[in-house]
Design goal:
6-phosphogluconate dehydrogenase C-terminal fold, Rossmann fold, 3-stranded mixed sheet, about 50% helix, globular, homodimer, alpha/beta, about 300 residues, 2 domains
Chain lengths: ~300, ~300
């Protein structure tokens, strides 16, 4: 460890894909002195011990959080309230309480009132992941070249925020600070709506009576397989995302449905020009993604 | 070339991603004695000469087709009628006329009446591809481990069909014979609808006034990027697919919209159980895709 670590004791609540990747990345880059993890699942705790990716594993989140200068919630959004209620008495003044959830406004409303005075609530979201779940699925390079978005309150402590930014930068992420509402609107279109649509079509395909599931799987290379990858993501995590970002998802879904109806009408009436024009415009966005190295 | 080639003179009409991949695969595996290609674009013809992937390049498709024992249409579906009208007088009795288009029933209705007596019309569809277009995008391994579907008429010539099956098997594909109507229904869900939805959402994202295109691109790693890949496919090719498989696409789209509306309602009313149940079921389909090695 060339420089002093950013945190003395990092507490990870939840050690699934993201939590275990954070543990690996933090250790690899020497970002923290000690990592203590808590997980509600005995099976996950056992596996984390076997993998040797943290220094201590606890079943009680309050015990893990005690004395930590950074506590990071890496569990589905719906669990936050109970966890913070349990760990609040153990949180030290000056500690950072952050998370990795895919919706950010709800963090303030759900747990804001439970956070003890002197503890810095700084919500975060690394825009990275795979369709796999659990501690075995994580890897240290998950965040390299990806964006880590922080949505601090307007009056956030500058020094605490600087430390959290340094931590995420240390994992290889590019850090962006934005307003929680703006985050939720942006992610509704770039992540939440794509997941909802992928989940929908994969479910639709599974229920057809005139094409079998075996046929759907067999010929999935024509486009469907990419949707199945997305629709293989953690069901509880995604349930909570849709419930917690309801307004933004419903708004984006409304726009999507309007556009889809327009294209449906073009197909029904044989309006090739409308289709070709639309399909030509979308190519430019793809080029942008490739050029931004997010492909 | 260890064994005798399957075709003496393979004529490829259109040398884009698929046509150029077929040329490369056929030559690599020694499936044909000679490859003659035609393309309407002078730029493509020039590039095909530079790449050296075929033996002859013609601007006139009839000249390319003359004397061929297999003529393969590798252009968008909407071009078939004019091309076959032009090459019909040059087709030899006993020759195979086939294609690689993503819709199959329309091939019979569009060009069936133009095919000279004694020429075997055997439509085909390799379920393989990438989002890239043009002769530089092709590669010999594109068909390895993928399905090639043939949709011959009920009274197809057995010997001709056997040759075409051997050709596709020689490219590394697994060959499946099915009815054209069944093909079009199956591909409507595994390929056409996924493309339509991906095109739609990428277009929706591009037109938002409250989230910029730059933001959409920046945070695309959360799921959106997979849709941009699909929505980067050839616009003319896909316009024709939707127009030519209208009925099946509209049917699948209707089912998708019903399911999406159900999930939208669950989000609006906070029905987490419906969401979680749906998202859990879709995981099984993903496992099927992975196990079938189509991931």
């Amino acid at each position: 460890m060339a420089e002093a670590p950013i945190f003395e004791r990092l507490c990870l609540i939840g050690v699934g894909l993201i939590g275990s990747s954070i543990a690996r990345a933090a250790r690899k880059a020497g970002l923290v002195r000690k990592i203590v993890a808590a997980d509600a699942s005995a099976q996950v705790r056992q596996r984390v011990v076997e993998l040797g990716i943290v220094d201590e594993v606890e079943s009680d989140p309050a015990k893990a959080a005690k004395g930590a200068d950074c506590v990071m919630l890496c569990t589905p959004l719906g669990t936050y309230r109970d966890i913070v209620a349990a760990i609040a008495p153990a949180l030290c003044p000056g500690a950072i309480l952050t998370d990795i959830g895919s919706v950010k406004s709800c963090v303030f409303t759900d747990i804001g009132p439970l956070v003890p005075k002197g503890v810095h609530l700084l919500p975060g979201h690394p825009v990275a992941g795979t369709e796999h779940s659990g501690p075995d699925a994580g890897f240290a390079e998950l965040f390299v070249g990806r964006w880590a978005i922080l949505t601090p309150p307007a009056d956030a402590d500058t020094a605490a925020l600087a430390k959290l930014k340094a931590f995420w930068a240390g994992t290889g992420s590019t850090v962006e600070v934005m307003d929680a509402t703006r985050h939720d609107l942006t992610l509704a279109i770039t992540s939440h709506l794509p997941h909802l649509i992928a989940y929908t079509i994969v479910g639709t395909a599974a229920e057809l009576e005139n094409v079998t599931a075996a046929e759907v799987i067999r010929y999935s290379a024509g486009g469907f397989r990419d949707f199945t990858r997305i629709a293989g993501s953690n069901p509880v995590m995604w349930r909570d995302i849709f419930l917690d970002n309801r307004e933004a998802v419903l708004e984006m879904l409304g726009r999507f449905t309007e556009d889809l109806t327009g294209l449906q009408r073009a197909i029904r009436y044989g309006d090739g020009k409308t289709l070709e024009d639309w399909f030509t415009r979308t190519r430019a966005i793809r080029r942008g993604v490739v050029e931004a190295k997010q492909a």
